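ugh ok fine here u go
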Amino acid sequence: MQIITLILFSIGNTSTLLRKIPLISRGQRAGCYILKLLELPSNFENSSGFIMPEYENKTGGDSGGEILIDISNLNFAYESNPNLRVLKNLNLKIYQNEVVSIVGESGSGKSTLISLILNLYELRSPPPNSGNSTYNNGNSDMIKLLGVSINSINPKWFHENIAVVQQQHRFFNGTILENLTYCLPEHAAAAAGYHVEGKQDVIWDALELVDMREYVDSLSDGLNTRMGDQNTSLFSGGQNQRMCIARALIRRPKILVLDECTSALDPENTRKICDLIKDVLIEKLGMTVIIVTHAKELMKISDKIICLKDGYCIETGDFETLMHRRKYLYNLINSNFDI
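structure:
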């Protein structure tokens, strides 16, 4: 009888193991990809000759603020399809301490423009003898940050001074403290006036800014509360978005990019995000905020709205001005456009 029991037990375990083989195989492949990624050379290792632009907090917009991002006659095509220009003859200026919304239908070039500002794609001349005059259209002077050509800027500058909050946020399985400090480098802590050992001070300050300190403090384990897939009901949708912004604020970036940050939020939480942008990011911290959005509430608090269509900048201005014109933005909003 014992032998039969052992045989049945072994068969059951073998069956379970066989069902797990595809998962093990996928895990092995994922591990290989991660190892390859870790072996890629870092731009940080060879950053000599690059420039670190100097940033001074200023306000004023068009009436006197310093130009932060200057885009001049920008054309861009992806290497995979060099004859198709995604952005065409763009001329834009974004000033320090401005809130700027980028608006347009799906495929208008919003994501590409943001990617170029973040220096995720390199502006360079067409390949030799390609006969192609549109591919990237040729030089990094088309985008300047604080007067410096984007390709000349030290890669560290982007990591230290720009933060991004994506539409699809992701938290790791771990504590609140771990999630919000994974990417906290020593230089950011020092710039914010803290030592790395004092991570909790950095966290509480960031949570205070996004009005989440009281809630997190009320949790029985505080910053040591587990989150991620281990505790999906910990935060509401609006709280999740504010936690994402808190994570971005820890490094005290100069530029914050918000990519459809209110797309899944109800009107009340959208209003709270708007208040956070106006009262904290702009007034308290003096940041420049760039928003990819289709939400009227965010457009209304913007100093400038950039409307893109088929890679062209169709019109720019504040919400009231553009709605009064009754042209592209007016028609876009009233058509419930596809983002």
